[in-house]
Specification:
By secondary structure, this protein is mainly β. It is built from two helices and 24 strands.
Length: 306
């Protein structure tokens, strides 16, 4: 079976519409699971909606959109205290378990970004946790003669590759489209496309769907094939591509595993303190900036980036 296109689904607003609001995709409305992506939320926050919390069994990704007025601060139980601005990303590869807290880095400025949860296959669900990050200036770009731009946040596009390399291959592209781009969808891989602004047509296997602002479409790779995206007006969107994980999925709260006993074990590790402790939040962004040393690309445990 070649590439199949899902129905187009809209993002639905939830939250208080004030200090915290989310346009969330109900991925259950797709014709089938768009593995490995399990969550995609388009959020705006100016306060602190969530305190420190654990994750295990998947990767929690926060991408700060370029139009965001403020940056993101991520603190975690590995010792990281990371700040990234618009166009930057923090990739929390939770594995066996980690505790983190994500807040706006700039008090009084709204943080606008995408929260994405990407499942891990069974062989990596208990891998040591790792936190990766890139600033906007570290994200490579591909430019076409027509003025199209692809920011290669993770993975690769047209021989341009990101330095951020997760434990399982994944593509995370942000695209500004004036004309048309194409890419190959590999066998047994799925793609999720979410439109931030504008409108375009997605074509594959002789079928086409129009997708507009705050809508999404999934492409199920099957035996693989060719995908073309053509703008009907200036469009900005993200493309998320990963290998389908054909394994049972059991989720509860902040954990995603293959069976209930693994969920129970994750809660036990958290209660015992095996996921570490988060130090008190005591420094401002200015203090963090003044105290950090040289940056290291794709830094993991204990690293510090801006």
């Amino acid at each position: 079976m070649s590439i199949q296109l899902s129905p187009v689904i809209p993002a639905r607003t939830r939250g208080d519409g004030g200090a915290f609001s989310v346009k969330s995709l109900d991925l259950d409305k797709l014709t089938r699971r768009v593995s490995p992506v399990v969550v995609l939320d388009d959020f705006r926050v100016s306060g602190q909606p969530f305190g420190p919390h654990p994750h295990a069994g998947f990767s929690a990704i926060t991408y700060v959109l370029e139009d965001s007025a403020g940056g993101l601060r991520n603190r975690d139980s590995l010792g990281n205290d990371i700040v990234v601005g618009g166009g930057g990303i923090v990739w929390t590869q939770a594995g066996s378990g980690v505790i983190h807290e994500e807040t706006p880095a700039d008090p009084g400025r709204e943080l606008h970004g995408l929260q994405v949860f990407v499942n891990l296959s069974s062989k990596n669900k208990l891998a040591p946790p790792r936190v990766l990050a890139l600033d906007a200036s570290e994200v490579p770009q591909w430019l076409s003669p027509a003025g199209d731009r692809v920011r290669v946040v993770v993975g690769s596009f047209e021989e341009v590759a990101s330095p951020l390399i997760p434990v399982e291959p994944f593509d995370f592209l942000e695209v500004d489209l004036l004309s048309e781009i194409s890419f190959g969808l590999r066998r047994a891989h799925n793609a999720l496309i979410y439109v931030l602004s504008g409108a375009m047509f997605v074509r594959a296997n002789g079928h086409a769907q129009k997708v507009t602002r705050e809508e999404a479409i999934a492409l199920f790779g099957g035996r693989g094939g060719h995908v073309t995206i053509a703008a009907s007006s200036l469009a900005r969107f993200v493309v998320l591509v990963g290998a389908e994980i054909s394994e049972p999925v059991v989720s509860r709260g902040p954990f995603i595993m293959n069976e209930q006993s693994q969920i129970d074990s994750a809660f036990a590790r958290y209660r015992r303190g095996d996921m570490g402790r988060l130090a008190p939040r005591s420094q401002s962004r200015a203090q963090i900036s003044a105290s950090r040393g040289p940056l290291e690309r794709n830094q993991g445990n204990g690293g510090d980036r801006r």
